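Course assignment 3, question 2. Fill in each field.
Student: A.L.
Task: Predict the tertiary structure for the chain below.
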Amino acid sequence: MATPGRQELIDRIAGELAWWGCAVPDDPGVGDLTGITARAAADRARAVDSRAREAAALIEMAALPLAACHRLHGTAPHIQHWHLTHALFTLADARTHLTATTGDRPPCDELSPG
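Answer field:
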C-alpha cells in the first residue's frame, strides 16, 4: 500500500474531525485543522463522562503535531508528513477509545461541539 500524500492525510484528518461533529470547511489548510482540533478538545474536555474527557485529551494531543506542521510553512515535507500522520493516528485513537464501549457514534449530546 502506498504512503498517503499530504492532501490525503489532510482529508483524512478533516474526516475524523467531521466524525466528532466539527464544522470543517471545504479544502481546509493545516492552520484550519489546528484551530478546529483545539476547539474540539476544549469543547469535549467539559464532558461529564470520563471516557469523553480522556478522548478530549487525545484530541488535544492531535492539535500539537498539527500546530508544528503549520509552523513549518511548506518546508521540510517529510517532517510535515510525520506530523500529519501522527495527528491522524491520535485522532483515530480518540475515536477508538470512545467507541470501544459506545458503538460508532459519540454516546451523548455533551460530546457535541458547543
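Instructor remarks: The mean pLDDT is 87. The chain is about 70% helix and 0% strand.
Grade: pending
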